[in-house]
Amino acid sequence: MSKEKSINVNVNGKAVELVVPAHRTLLEALRHESFVEIKCGCEKGDCGACAVLLDGEPVDSCLTLAWHVDGCEVTTIKGIGQPGKADPLQEAFIETGAAQCGYCTPGMIVAAKSLLTDNQNPSLAEIKRALGGNLCRCTGYTRIFEAVLLAARKMREEGEAA
Amino acid sequence: MLPSFDLYQPQSLGDALQALAKSDEMQPLAGATNLVPDLRGKRETCRSFISLKALDDLRYINREGDRVTVGACTTISDILRDSAMQTDAPALYAAAEIFAGTMVRNAATIGGNICCGSPSADTVPALLTLGAEVTLSSASGERTVPLDEFYVDYKKSVKRADELLTSVSWSIPAVNSVNLFYKLARRKGDAITVTGVAVMIAAQDGVCCSARIALGSVGPTVFRARAAEDLLTGKALDEDLIEQAARTAADQCAPIDDIRASAGYRLQTAFSLTRRLLTQAWKQLA
To answer: Among A23, A57, A135, whose Cβ lies nearest the Cβ of B106?
Structure first.
């Protein structure tokens, strides 16, 4: 029925060509290309496990049609921080013990990264709102919120030191 | 995996309208945040779509005099980024704040929220209290329809298959008015509305000069509680009058039982939330 189309995206700084039909979601297309750090959860935009940054804004990749991202920049959890130099958010998640089973963590950090890029001094309410589309079934959220607050503090301190 | 479908991606509004004029079955999509789950859940049977994603000229917020016009492809996050919306459309801003989750707000559009026609669409009660109008465009021209006359039944509207909802507009609320929205749901984030209420009350020296009340998730469409509005208009606001108006608004509801709440709970909360918002408006206007 639907033809395939070549979609060019930049994923974590690397050019990727996706040859996909119209009904392929970004989540399916990228996991097929081995970007399995993007987690597949509810597939209906409720859980946020599949969150990626699309031109800097977090979206649910399970709701995003691959055809809609031609020419866009995609950042997954692997595009945040580098091996040997973790992002302040990643450090803070480790330090506070914000991950238990870890399945929601990539999406949590992606959504939190976008918040901290816009706002380096978020209130607890702002953090809760920013993470309102991310479900965690283990932690009860408390340590995740602590981690984001800690990361924000780290980023402010780094900013002052620089 | 989603069922296979065709997707046409026009680069201009003109091309989009021409395509809609030629096809009987093509349906528009923008953020697709409702559509993708509906396709996956087999609730959507259409297999031919037209994407509005590339139509940047439908993504704008314009102000001219006291009139605000928002393009159909403006996202919920775009509304939140426009801080003047807090005064130009207080209830709409409040609805946008509590709309789904961050990622969905970044993709979902105001036009999509209106056109899906869900009784739980959060922007709609707010827009109804703002007295919003929608512009429906087709290859043969365009028409403006009051949002209040847009819906005819559950997920059904007066929009023809060859028409595209291209914008929604309203007048900035008067200085002596209060515009409020309350969403009752299981959680503050990422939840479907159990009962949604919006009010716009304007008053002069304690007398209500205009009233709009809109209710969501308590009937087949979002609707205005006209009888309750009439009851308030021209009268001095007080507790008894507000109680009576809230009662009248609840009488107009026809809720259903579903997984989120019983019809009885919805009826009770439609009453209590209408009373609460009207009381809050009255106090703020005093």
So the answer is: A57
What is the 8-class DSSP label of residue B41?
Answer: T
* Helix residue ranges, H only, chain B: 13-22, 35-40, 76-81, 85-88, 90-97, 102-107, 110-116, 123-129, 226-232, 239-251, 263-285
CB contact under 8 A, B39 and A129: no
Contact A132 B36 (CB under 8 A): no
Instruction: Give the C-alpha separation, B92 to B79, whole Å.
Output: 9
How confident is the model at residue A161, as a pLDDT? Answer: 82
Per residue in B192-236, pLDDT (tens digit) is: 999 999 999 999 999 999 999 999 999 999 999 999 999 999 999
Looking at the fold, whether A92 and A60 belong to one and the same domain comes out as no
Over range A121-133, report the average pLDDT. Answer: 96
CATH architecture, domain defined by B58-171: 2-Layer Sandwich (3.30)
Would you call B231 helix, strand, or coil by DSSP?
Answer: helix
Task: Give this complex's ipTM.
Answer: 0.96
Taking a C-beta distance cutoff of 8 angstroms, is the pair A129, B102 a contact? yes
In A31-67, which positions are buried (b, 16+ CB within 10 angstroms) versus exposed (e)? beeebeebbbbebbbbbbbbbbbbeebbbbbbbbbbb
Determine contact, residues B120/B259, Cβ cutoff 8 Å: no
For B192-285, the fitting CATH number among 3.30.390.50, 3.30.565.10, 3.90.320.10, 3.40.630.30 is 3.30.390.50
Q: Which residues pair with B179 in a beta bridge?
A: B200
| Rounded CA separation A82/A87 (Å) | 7
CB pairs under 8 A between A and B: 106
CB-nearest to A133 from B9, B49, B103 is B103
